[in-house]
Design brief:
five-stranded parallel sheet, 8 helices, FAD/NAD(P)-binding domain, single chain, binds flavin-adenine dinucleotide, 428 residues, alpha/beta, 23% helix
Length: 428
């Protein structure tokens, strides 16, 4: 059993994406003791898989670097990666929490020299690139990973590859005998920041994601555009690696649809408008983007961005819910079928590549919470008194952009601080 110092004055944050990091840092910078647990080997969450941020089109790595600097500087936060919460009991001000800590097989001696990765032969689908590329069985999850430490995939333990990785390491950082551990701790409040996952595009049968190679999702498109992604930042079609210069973006792919995801994720329109600028950035005047939409949901400062994209003559807006996608077998082009509701013309439009703007759903299914929490009809955690001192931050509470996710995280930190302060008052 791992020894972890925590009391009812401690705040536990579950999930180390931008929301969990923000909540942890805000509480820690107010002097509170915080334990931040993240199930993956690195913090950053899905933001670290984006190429650029709307509306400024800056790289998420900048904002992330600031948070990492704050994290490194603050002794009040204890970060535990590869850790999950397996049980929670108790009430506001006094929760008992069980943790499961998975082995990394690499200790803090690691200098990220990469020798273990070079020594290993076996490859697996790269989670960071949504399976669009492969990574080695000994790997750094991505260039900005924090902690900057390699991971040995548990699937190679007991194989010759694991021994090769260990022998290659010049600083004795690989410990193949590392075991999973469990831990129990007491905390006063819990911030639940487990975020979102993309809606499974395989379920949208008419759009052929499961059978047409050149139909991909919006999250995959972010990885294609990123110079650190599987294509080195070139927008290439999966079927033949040809440059995709004529790209269709389909809005509400599965969203606002009672057969799939009922809610609007609100950020998908902005994500596609942003992604149309990637086409311009990569191909200049040769790049063409067509946005098939029901209505564009861009408000406040975001509307300026919408207008900017609308003014680009290489971006076409087609008001239509696409009915189905077929594949032209001779070219590999997906062909979109539907009716343009401005004029009611039927169309059969071929494109080099189709990007489905899939919605966001909660990453933790309703039945998987370690303690009962009140969720809304879409599975997002409600702000509800019955949840005691369990507060949702960011996309565990709703489909949000980063700006709103960070605001929600700051609010949850304040609520958690109020609980532990009350608990301290009661003790005094
Ligand atoms: C295609 C697309 C493009 C986007 N582009 C933009 C953009 O340009 N600008 C913008 O503002 N927003 C954008 N967004 C939205 C943005 O991705 C979210 O606002 C952001 O990821 C929310 O962060 P989060 O921390 O709430 O969730 P997440 O990023 O999902 O982080 C959650 C973290 O919790 C961890 N976790 C999950 N379950 C557990 C568990 N059981 N135990 C421990 N840890 C757990 C995860 O591993 C992850 O690290 C985009 C979204 C999409 C779909």
């Amino acid at each position: 059993m791992a020894e972890i110092v925590a009391t009812n004055q401690t705040i536990l944050v579950v999930g180390g994406g931008i929301s969990g990091m923000t909540a942890a840092l805000e509480a820690a910078e107010c002097g509170k003791q915080v334990i931040l647990v993240e199930k993956n080997p690195t913090v950053g969450g899905r933001v670290s898989q984006l190429y650029r941020y709307f509306p400024k089109l800056c790289h998420p790595t900048c904002g992330m670097e600031i948070n990492l600097k704050r994290l490194r500087a603050n002794k009040n936060v204890r970060l535990m990666t590869m850790t999950e919460v397996t049980g929670v009991s108790g009430d506001a001000g006094n929760y008992s929490v069980s943790l499961k800590i998975n082995p990394r097989f690499v200790n803090e001696n690691c200098t990220t020299c990469g020798a273990c990765g070079e020594a290993v032969d076996v490859q697996f689908d790269d989670e960071h690139n949504y399976g669009l590329g492969q990574r080695k069985g000994a790997y750094l999850p991505h260039a900005m990973a924090y902690p900057q430490r390699y991971v040995i995939d548990p699937r190679i333990i007991g194989t010759a590859d694991a021994d090769k990785a260990k022998s290659a390491c010049p600083v004795n950082a690989i410990d193949l005998n590392m075991k999973g551990e469990s831990a129990k701790l007491t905390v006063g409040a819990i911030i639940w920041a487990t975020g979102w996952r993309p809606f499974d595009a395989n379920k949208i049968q008419p759009y052929g994601y499961d059978r047409i190679a050149n139909v991909i999702t919006s999250v995959e498109f972010e990885r294609l555009a990123d110079p650190h992604g599987p294509t080195g930042g070139k927008i290439l079609r999966p079927s033949d690696n040809k440059e995709a210069k004529n790209i269709a973006f389909i809005q509400c792919a599965g969203s606002r649809d009672r057969n799939y995801l009922k809610h609007c994720s609100r950020i998908c329109c902005m994500a596609s408008l942003k992604q149309s600028t990637y086409v311009r950035e990569k191909f200049g005047d040769e790049g063409k983007a067509s946005i098939y939409y029901i209505d564009i949901r861009a408000i406040d400062r975001i509307d300026d961005f919408h207008q900017m994209v609308k003014n680009d003559p290489n971006v076409t807006f087609v008001k239509s819910k696409v009915a189905r996608i077929d594949e032209d077998k001779s070219t590999g082009n997906p062909v979109l079928h539907g009716v343009n509701t401005e004029g009611y013309q039927r169309y059969a439009n071929p494109h080099d590549l189709v990007v489905l703007a899939v919605g966001m759903e909660p990453s933790v299914p309703v039945g998987d919470f370690p303690i009962k929490v009140t969720v809304n009809e879409h599975g997002f955690i409600e702000q509800d008194e019955s949840n005691g001192a369990i507060f949702a931050a960011g996309c565990s509470s709703d489909a949000l952009d980063v700006n709103r996710a960070v605001q929600s995280a700051t609010a949850s930190a304040l609520r958690a601080i109020q609980v532990v302060n009350r608990a301290a008052g009661m003790e005094g």
